[in-house]
């Protein structure tokens, strides 16, 4: 084994050990506070509900440990263990294909192999953990249907993208990655536009919000915020899970606001309005645009790096692939990047939490901080969200502020407001 191969093994083991250590910290923090509801939530969340959230978090942590170990072993087996090279030889010996077709076959084989390893974890999470804590509504038939649809979409969309990338790597010269980056930008915009109207309806049923009082309240909020949308929709999330959620999706004329039907059953009208105001805040404060711009810059750098690495024989040989090829470069890069960039995880999480605080402040201005705090408390309770995470774990992984910190900030906003429950006038801000 070369020194670079050994360095990669050490990096994979170090990242796995760090992830396991963070999970252990999270489990200890949650276990130590299992029997005591934090004071700000004591009137709204019972000890039994708080204990359930702790047990749910601990069950997911145990499964996450297994997933981390499997992921690490698969990564090592495919790279320094020679897995990619073995699959490559298998297809070469039996077909005699050349790029891009042999590359497509090798990549497809590894995608399927990864899915096979991930399937038991997904099944256990859905039909054991989620079912045990009363969240799963998924039937085996629906699970298989979702799996089949996802696989077909991946093949229909991902297949041509992979073939195009391999052709560019083979025939477009040293700057192939620049053409690939341009294509990626176009695909990203196209998918963002098409997802709400073409792809999401393949998995869920979307209906227009029917409640006239709630619709009137939402339309008034949209007018205050100066926001236009193609519609406010309700998605049948209850077919799969009891968890509630809301989100904003789409670009241009296809912008949509989507509420899970489970969320509408959990919240009152003012709380739904406050949650929507938070989601609108992400749009009005240009969070979506900022994240898209960052992804554009990051993808440019990543593809430029891949363009350089693809021409380095040492890159292949140190990661278990004796014969360089475009498809090997893509696979190795996809396996190496998560290991190398893991330490950037807390930076991304911190940026996301900052956006969440900003959207909360927007919701407090245009709706009600008190109503948003009430809605979040209900969601924490009904979704069995732990109220007492480990500080370091949440710094690494939490895209949303921890419950205690977020509710405290909302109460500060409520106290600072001159007229706490009055919406901001039209055009304010």
Shape: globular
Order of strands, main sheet, comes to 1-2-4-3
How big a fraction of the residues is strand? under 5%
State the end-to-end CA separation.
Answer: 61 Å
Q: Number of helix segments? A: 16
Q: What is the domain total for the residues?
A: 1
Number of strands: 4
The largest sheet is: 4 strands, mixed
CA gyration radius, whole angstroms: 24 Å
**Would you list the SSEs in sequence order as H and E?**
HHHHHHEHEEEHHHHHHHHH
Query: Can you give the helix content as a percent range?
Result: 55-70%
Segments where pLDDT lies below 50 for 5+ residues? 424-429
Q: What's the overall average pLDDT, rounded?
A: 91
Judged by helices, strands and strand pairing, the structural class is mainly alpha
SSE diagram, text form:
Blueprint: H1 3-32, H2 47-78, H3 83-95, H4 101-132, H5 140-171, H6 176-199, E1 206-208, H7 212-225, E2 232-235, E3 246-249, E4 256-260, H8 261-266, H9 269-284, H10 287-309, H11 313-317, H12 326-340, H13 345-366, H14 369-382, H15 391-397, H16 403-416
Parallel strand pairs: 2-4
Antiparallel strand pairs: 1-2, 3-4
């Amino acid at each position: 084994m070369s020194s670079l191969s050994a360095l990669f093994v050490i990096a994979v083991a170090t990242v796995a050990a760090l992830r396991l250590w963070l999970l252990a910290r999270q489990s200890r923090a949650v276990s130590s506070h299992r029997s005591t509801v934090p004071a700000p939530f004591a009137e709204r969340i019972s000890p039994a509900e708080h204990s359930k959230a702790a047990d749910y978090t601990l069950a997911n942590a145990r499964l996450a440990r297994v997933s981390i170990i499997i992921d690490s072993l698969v990564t090592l087996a495919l790279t320094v263990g020679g897995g990619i090279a073995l699959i490559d030889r298998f297809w070469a010996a039996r077909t005699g294909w050349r790029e891009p077709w042999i590359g497509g076959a090798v990549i497809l084989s590894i995608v399927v192999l990864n899915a096979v390893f991930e399937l038991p974890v997904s099944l256990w999470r859905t039909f054991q953990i989620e079912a045990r804590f009363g969240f799963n509504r998924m039937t085996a038939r629906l699970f298989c249907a979702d799996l089949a649809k996802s696989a077909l979409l991946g093949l229909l969309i991902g297949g041509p993208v992979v073939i195009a990338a391999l052709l560019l790597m083979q025939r477009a010269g040293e700057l192939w990655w620049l053409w690939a980056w341009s294509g990626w930008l176009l695909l990203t915009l196209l998918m963002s536009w098409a997802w709400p109207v073409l792809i999401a309806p393949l998995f869920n049923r979307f209906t227009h919000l029917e409640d006239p009082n709630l619709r009137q309240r939402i339309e008034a909020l949209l007018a205050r915020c100066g926001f236009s949308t193609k519609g406010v929709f309700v998605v049948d999330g209850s077919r799969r899970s009891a968890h509630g959620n809301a989100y904003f999706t789409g670009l241009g004329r296809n912008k949509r606001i989507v509420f899970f039907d489970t969320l509408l059953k959990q919240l009152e009208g003012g709380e739904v309005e406050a949650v929507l105001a938070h989601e609108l805040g992400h749009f009005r404060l240009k969070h979506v645009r900022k994240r898209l711009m960052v992804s554009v810059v990051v993808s440019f750098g990543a593809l430029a790096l891949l363009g350089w690495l693809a021409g380095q024989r040492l890159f292949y040989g140190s990661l278990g692939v004796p014969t360089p090829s475009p498809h090997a470069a893509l696979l190795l890069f996809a396996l190496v990047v998560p290991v190398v960039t893991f330490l950037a995880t807390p930076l991304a999480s911190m940026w996301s939490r900052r956006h969440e605080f900003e959207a909360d402040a927007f919701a407090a201005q245009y709706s009600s901080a008190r109503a948003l705090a009430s809605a979040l408390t209900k969601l924490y309770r009904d979704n069995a969200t732990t109220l007492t995470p480990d500080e370091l774990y949440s710094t690494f992984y939490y895209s949303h502020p921890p419950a205690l910190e977020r509710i405290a900030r909302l109460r500060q906003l409520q106290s600072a407001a001159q007229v706490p429950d009055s919406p901001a006038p039209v055009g304010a801000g």
